Amino acid sequence: MHLARWPNSDWTHIKLPLDNTNTFFSSIEKIPALPENLEHAQVHILAGNDWFDQFIPVSKVDSNQNQIKLANKPTYPLTSGRRYYLQNIASELDAPGEWFYDKANDKILFIPPSQAAPTEIEVSAIPYLMTLKGANFISFDGLSLQNATETAIRIEKPDDVHLNHLEISNIGARGLEVKDGKNVTITDSNIHDTGEGGILLTGGDRKTLESGNNIAHNNHIHHIGKVLLNYSSAIELGGVGNKAI
Q1: pLDDT tens column, 21-58
Q2: How sure is the predictor about 131, in pLDDT bands with cuts at 50, 70 and 90?
């Protein structure tokens, strides 16, 4: 399911950047009339190329002039012909599979997919399902973790921590992050349906070249990068002496 958006599918395109702020552009496709209050609206945009996408808050949409003002600068300069779409706009809740969070009334509005009305709906607002800091000599085996808005498991500065036979899915960002780890193993796990990547695994001392000795082995990572389409690697390594095999 995805946030209420325009257009309902596919992309629209930047016509021209309109000033030197790198936040103001016109649209090739005609923008529909939208409400003045766009406090939570976002643009999903590949501003300057086809390999770096990001979500940026919208400051103003002028439907009459067919122009959009962004609240922040994109990482790359706005370029004519590049892709974007608008999302998180209540008035654009008009197609099967779309939803919108009505914050004022604390309600989620949802149009079920055609021919597939759900019998059960799950909603999560939990950023992390498991967080460990400075943990030593711990093993997790056979856990199933789903439905986090950020990362399922986040571990900082562990030593001798082992994660085996995990099932991680339906995650907003990465499935699993290990930062500044030593002697960590992630093995025989299934990680899928994530908004960004699969595993981040870092550790070791780059000044002394002391090995982190962290290993990701025989993991099945698939159907990732469903929110951020680019720069969402299955396995990202950082530091010294870490392996993905």
Answers
A1: 999 999 999 999 998 778 899 999 999 999 999 999 99
A2: very high
Same domain, 228 and 150: yes
Do 132 and 238 lie in a common domain?
yes
Specify if 30 maps to a domain: yes
SS (H, E, C) the chain: CEECEECCCCCEEEEEECCCCCCEEEECCCCCCCCCCCCCCEEEECCCCCCCCEEEEEEEEECCCCEEEECCCCCCCCCCCCEEEEECCHHHCCCCCEEEEECCCCEEEECCCCCCCCCCCCCCCCCEEEEEECCEEEEEECCEEEEECCEEEEEECCEEEEEECCEEEEECCCCEEEECCECCEEECCEEEEECCCCEEEEECECCCCECCCCEEECCEEECCCCCCCCCCCCEEEEECCCEEC
What's the pTM? 0.88
Model pLDDT for residues 209-227, shown as the tens digit of each residue: 999 999 999 999 999 999 9
Q: Among the three residues 110, 144, 174, which one is the final residue of a domain in this structure?
A: 110
Contact 184, 155 (CB under 8 A): yes
